[in-house]
Structure formats: C-alpha cells, structure tokens
Amino acid sequence: MGSAGLNRARDKMRDAGVDEAAIDVFAHYYRLLEHGETGMIPEASIEPLDMESLADVDVPDDVATTALKSTAVIKLNGGLGTSMGMDRAKSLLCVRRGLSFLDIIARQVLQLRKEHDATLPLVFMNSFRTSADTLAALTRYDDLAVEGLPLEFLQNREPKLLASNLEPVTYPPNPDLEWCPPGHGDIYTALLGTGLLGRLIEAGYRYAFVSNSDNLGAVPDARVAGWFAQSGAPFAIEAVRRTVSDRKGGHFARRLVDGRIVLRESAQTLDADKEALADLDRHKYTSTNNLWFDLQAMADALEVRGGILGLPLIRNFKNLDPADPSTPEVIQIETAMGAAIEVFEGARTIEVSRDRFVPVKTTNDLLVLRSDVYDIGSDFILDPATEQVPFIELDDNFYKVVGDFDRRFPEGAPSLKEASSLRVVGDWIFGPGVRVVGAAALEAKAAQRIEANAVLGDASGDDG
Hints:
The strands form 8 sheets. This protein has a 7-stranded mixed sheet with strand order 6-5-2-10-14-11-17, with helices on both faces. Strands 20-21-23-25 form a 4-stranded parallel sheet. By secondary structure, it is an alpha/beta fold. The protein is globular. The protein has 13 helices and 25 strands.
C-alpha cells in the first residue's frame, strides 16, 4: 500500500516513464524517511581504517593486461556544472589545447586499447540533460563505440519532496525543478534497469571501472585492474590521503558492529562529530570515487536483494529552486555509489597516488588543470609536473562562473608548477606569461591587471 505521499510520488514517476526498478528503490528510501531514518553514522560506531598502498603491491604485467582486457569503463556524466554557471554537460568544458573532458577521456581509452590490445568499452551514464550534448560531441570518434554495446545509459530521476510533509513537489513555473537525480548510487539501479549489466556479462566482461568524468586522473589503469583481479575482491575503491582541502569531505572507516568498511560522507556526520571528521590524523583516507567491481558479484547482490542494494540514505535539504531561497525547502533522496563497499563481504580499498584524483568541482580546480601543474602527453594521461598541487582560492564574486573566470584569464592560466598557494581577493585580470612562485596573495578593491611575464609570490613556500 504505502502512504498517500509515496503513492503520489510513484504515480508521478510512472507517468514520466521512470523504470520500475528505480521506483522500487525510491519507495525503499521514502519509507526510511517516513520512519525517521537520517542516514547518520556516529563517530562512536566506527574506527579509523588503514590500508595497503598500490606502490607496495606486485602486479605482474601479464596479470595487469589480462585484467584490463576483461574490464568495461563507465563514466558518470550526468552533471551540468551549474555551480560554475554552466547549462550543458560539464564534461564539454575546455581543459587544454581546445580539448574538453570528453575529448581527453575518449583519447585516453583509444590509446589504452592500442597499448594493451584490449576492447575496453567506454560507456557514459548520462542524465536526460546531458545525453544529447554528450552524444553529439562524441560523433567525432567513429571507433569509440564497441559493437553490441551502447555509448550511454541514462541515470534515473525522482521527485523532490516537500520537507514539511514528504509530498512530491509541484512547481508550474518550471516543472523540471520538480525532479532531481538520486545521487550517483543510482548507477547500480540504472545498470540493472536498462539491462546493461546483463549485456556486459553476456559479452564476456568481468569487471567494471567506474569514475567521474570530471576526474581526468581516473584512467582505467592496467596495474590497478591487475591488483583488483588478483585480490579476488567483489568490490574495491581507490583512496588517497586526505589533505586540508578534504577536511570537510567523506572518509573511509570500519564499522565496529560487523567489521565492514564504510564510506562516511559529510552529510552523514553528526554536528558533534565534525571535529573528528576534520581530523586528518584519525581519518586518513578519502575516496577518489574510482570504483572497481565484479560484474557477476554485483548482479548476484542485486538479485538476492530484489534489485535494492540498500545503500545508506543521504537526506539532501535544498530549496525547490536552488537559486531562489524563498521557494519551499525540499528533501532530495540520494545515495553514494561508494557506499556499496559495505554491501560486499571482502570488499577492499587501496591507496593510490594523488594524480589519480584530479576532480574539477570549482574554477579553483579548473585553474590548476589548465595550468602547467600537469602535462598531457601523447597518451593523454595527466603527468604531474610538481610533487605538490598548489592551493588555489579565487574570489567567488569574480571567478566562480566559468564565463567570468575565462574573461580574467584571457591569455590562459598562469604558471603554477612552482607555486604552493595562490589567493585572489578582488577583480584581477592576468596577462600572458605570469608565473606564481611559492605563496602569492592578491587583494584589491578596484579592478586590477597583472602585466605580462610578471612573477608573483616568493620562493619560501606556504603549506596552503
């Protein structure tokens, strides 16, 4: 039966053509909300997690290549980059030399196919907002699609719920705003509902490598594939050491009650535990969102659980129109795909180098990627030109939106490979050939221009 609110939400999803598997998953989490589930993971229920490093693991070349030949690559590509002022697929954003994220991902995979004589299918999980733009941009790569497999599958969508009564929202001024994505934990539901999981298994693939399209460091690396294959684990996540920039982000831990590895996101952390969350000495590792899983093990888990993995709930409170704080408060039901690590007995984590985790969430990250901190070689794989990625903090008033950001770097990004930090307050336009050395801070109340070939900062450095 279910409550009236749940029934209305189900009807709305069916009328919109949402897959029944996704409706069942939504209903599962709706009931949890009704019963007061918060999804919180108290500090007292977990302990810190340590793990092995890929640098210390022996992976024979033949094992690595064999594993990669059995791997399918899935890129999460549903984001529009709205936080940076974009209204199309974020992966279409130019990164370097006129190449977008999509261009570089496609060329990375094509190069790896040649290098390892591997089929290595590449599939994008798009949203209904990113599908058309993405497929149009990929038409230039005639040999990218693998026969019998699609280039994309679509993530699901679900109704936003009024925080006051859990009723599905109606908003006639903009009906699109009545809907939201279910978080990237939806990947498992979408793989099942679209039939792609079964098609990959039938085509002879054993493993999936999943990562975000805005992380160009997430290459389907043969050595990591080999480690995963010889581990025998059903599921694994690549981790990196947390830095100051990761203090507010999620981390790995071990659950005391059953010893399972868990991934605790900041939204699942009690206010009383925020200090522990920020303790980099206690919780040392964060997720790269680079996942590996055994396709058959995933299919078996979904079958046993009736298509519902039961990932921890994340309640995301927002305004109905995120740009208008006067609109009602809503709840978006979300799950994180990395949280599936707790579902599988014998799941693993592995510490990898930071160059496998180069996400672009803000224009601060974009400036680093467009600078000389990374070289992009003929294999289109990022090669760090410095041991430490500089800390960048640009004034949101002038640099947050990509269009404004681009106007202030008309000649391209400054050299940052000798920088430890760059903080910019105010409106600064950068001329060509600017170098940042050590720590640099700019502050101005009126618009300023940095002349060509200027050197900013000092050689003493700063820990950011």
